[in-house]
Amino acid sequence: MSGGGPKLRFCPESNDLLYPKEDKERKVLVYFCRSCPYQEDADPSDWCVYRNEVHHTSREKSVVLQDVRSDPTLPRTRDVRCPQCANNEAVFFTASTEEGMTLFLNCCNCGHRWRDYV
């Protein structure tokens, strides 16, 4: 099996899919069967591993609906106090930000949104 990009390989013993791994002693790529001891060396043309990194802008990372109070899929709590109107019911959700994981709360009465850093 040579060239033409990566192909699915199957074990001649069990017909199961062969998986890639590194033979650390010989420093080569091999394909192995998870069901039996069969393994075969990969063709050198298959040694290249591709990595695709997707970069998002900060705007893409922080896309949040403007009014989440009417979203029935989001959890609600009555254990908070809105800093703006003192109402005790809020919708909440988490998001990853530059600071880490952040808990966003949205008051069900006035719509005020605030953060609680987890």
UniProtKB/TrEMBL annotation:
Residue stretches in coiled coil: none
Listed name of the protein: DNA-directed RNA polymerase subunit
Residues the record lists as binding Zn(2+) 2: C82, C85, C107, C110
PROSITE patterns the record matches: ZF_TFIIS_2
Main location: nucleus
Domain of life: Eukaryota
Domain TFIIS-type: 78-115
Subcellular location, record wording: Nucleus, Nucleolus
CDD domains given in the database record: Zn-ribbon_RPB9
Binding residues for Zn(2+) 1: C11, C33, C36
Keyword set, alphabetical order: DNA-directed RNA polymerase, Metal-binding, Nucleus, Transcription, Zinc, Zinc-finger
Gene Ontology MF, one: zinc ion binding
SUPFAM superfamilies: Zinc beta-ribbon (SSF57783)
Assigned protein family: Belongs to the archaeal rpoM/eukaryotic RPA12/RPB9/RPC11 RNA polymerase family.
GO CC term, one of those recorded: RNA polymerase II, core complex
Reported function: DNA-dependent RNA polymerase catalyzes the transcription of DNA into RNA using the four ribonucleoside triphosphates as substrates.
GO biological process: maintenance of transcriptional fidelity during transcription elongation by RNA polymerase II; transcription initiation at RNA polymerase II promoter; transcription-coupled nucleotide-excision repair
